[in-house]
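Lecture 7, part 2: worked example. A protein chain together with zinc ion.
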Amino acid sequence: MEVCQCDGQQNAEAIVLTEDGMHITAFWSRLLCGCGRNGSFEPIFVMENIIPLFDSTFNYRIIDKDDWQWSVYERAFYNPTANEIIIRSDVYEGALNGNAIDVITIAHEVVHCIQSIIMRFLNAINCVEFKTELCKANSDEMAHHELQTDRITALVLFPEKFLQGKSEDEIVQKYFINPLIQFMCGLIKVSCKGLLEALDDMNCIKGKTA
Ligand SMILES: [Zn+2]
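Predicted complex, written out as structure tokens:
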């Protein structure tokens, strides 16, 4: 597991995805983040150019390794409270030069950020049910969240793992049609609830005035 203390993440809320949810997240992340890069997922490019398109509150900082105030085992981390990725300068430079460990380290932090965007998006539209958990440092929940982040990172970097053995029709069904249906059903459910509540309110008013 990636060493990722996610500083300042005391009691931060993290989304809990199902197995399918992880695959769909990885599929769409790869699809959207690969735009303009021949479909490849380049974490530094994604962090600097793609994430800011979806999330104007996101920020990242490269800290000189001589000024690094965190543990030597912590090479980069995502702080969900500040919505910020912090990277040690040698790790950033290593990733720019294609060092695999450094690329994976930054990809992992980018995936933390993508999960946070998904959680805020689902919260805002309030039409798809999903689970979250509170992650405290060194808790089981944090270990679970880190494991899930590692798995999505692996899927994003090596998408052949979850596309292998599937026909084009199966891919379209699983990654496009199924999530779209779930999203549409959620929207309809929320609209229906709203309509029923409005009708109920009207009946109350009628009941009082009658
Ligand atoms: Zn992490």
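The chain has a mean pLDDT of 90. Residues 12-164 form one domain. Keep this in mind for problem set question 3.
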